[in-house]
Amino acid sequence: QAEVAESGGGSVQPGGSLKLSCVASTYIFSSCKMGWHRQAPGEGREFVAGIQRDGTTTYGDSVKGRFTISQDGAKNTLYLQMTSLKTEDTAVYYCAADFPGANNYYWCKNYWGQGTQVTVAS
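^ that's the sequence the OP posted. Answer follows.
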């Protein structure tokens, strides 16, 4: 929809870092608590990280301690700093105006980005 758009994906070696960005329209960013999800080839979509209004963050078990979600309200932008990347992190990463436990307005879940590919390999 381009109302939510990710960028920053690419290829990196195991142990490396990558930072993803997601720009959302003002009405979406101001109304919906946002998060990141990913989908590996042949797999279902997996929750990665979410952030509350007060800055409280939630992470999927597989990325805890390695990924950090943050946001910049002035830029309507969500970030995902990924460090200590593993080959298992290879997936298409999606930014969405919702995440498990966000308790957003019912319509927020309809807004997703197009996805950005992250490939971790030697």
